[in-house]
């Protein structure tokens, strides 16, 4: 497996794994994905998983986005007894070695997996538009629900709590959800 450790292993991390699946193994791979994802859910440090399925039936590229609280938690999962039987089966499904990429914090909000064809990041104005569409409703909701609860706190403490909650919601589930919904607009097909 082609992987290297990120520079800040104590930060929350998103691991992007790209697998190219054998055409005759797609159904078996889908069952395998369901099983391994269920096994990951109870593992310490695991936050979430998202599977991006192939757009092109001729290029069976699956992208799995794993989110862990830190790099060490991801490595512990990879080396665990719970993962071993699942990872041992992977060679049966893939055409070549999986590709691993790491992103810390929010870096993957507007990035796409490396593909055979070059896919560029969306233009700056599209990124801003989608960000505003995600952030604005959250701020309205937080102001409506939290401001009355935080009224007795110093302003800087109340603001910190609001930013903390907003950032957590944006990291997962809001931005992944919003970018999936706007994917055709952010990444139009040529």
Automatic annotation (TrEMBL):
Q: Does the keyword Amino-acid biosynthesis apply?
A: no
Origin organism of this chain?
A: Entotheonella factor
Q: Which residues form the ABM domain?
A: 13-102
- Print the organism lineage: Bacteria, Pseudomonadati, Nitrospinota/Tectimicrobiota group, Candidatus Tectimicrobiota, Candidatus Entotheonellia
Question: What is the protein's name according to its record?
Answer: ABM domain-containing protein
Where does the chain cross the membrane? 128-150, 156-179
**What PANTHER family does this protein's entry cite?**
SLR1162 PROTEIN
Top-level taxon in the UniProt lineage? Bacteria
Q: Which UniProt keywords apply?
A: Membrane, Transmembrane, Transmembrane helix
Question: InterPro entries under this entry?
Answer: ABM_dom, ABM_predict, Dimeric_a/b-barrel
Q: Is Transmembrane helix found in the keyword set?
A: yes
Gene3D superfamilies in alphabetical order: 3.30.70.100
């Amino acid at each position: 497996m082609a992987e290297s450790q990120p520079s800040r292993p104590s930060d929350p991390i998103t691991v992007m794994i790209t697998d190219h699946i054998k055409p005759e193994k797609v159904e078996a791979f889908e069952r395998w994905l369901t099983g391994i994802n269920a096994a990951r859910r109870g593992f310490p440090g695991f936050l979430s998983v998202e599977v991006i399925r192939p757009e092109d039936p001729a290029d069976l590229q699956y992208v799995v986005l794993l989110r862990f609280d830190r790099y060490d938690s991801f490595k512990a999962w990879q080396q665990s007894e719970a993962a071993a039987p699942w990872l041992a089966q992977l060679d049966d499904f893939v055409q070549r070695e999986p590709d691993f990429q790491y992103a810390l914090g929010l870096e993957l909000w507007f990035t796409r997996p490396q593909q055979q064809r070059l896919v560029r990041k969306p233009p700056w104005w599209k990124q801003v538009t989608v960000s505003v569409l995600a952030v604005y409703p959250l701020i309205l909701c937080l102001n409506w629900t939290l401001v009355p609860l935080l009224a007795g706190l110093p302003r800087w403490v109340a603001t910190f709590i609001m930013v903390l909650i907003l950032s957590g919601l944006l990291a997962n589930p809001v931005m992944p959800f919003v970018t999936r919904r706007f994917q055709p607009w952010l990444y139009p097909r040529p």
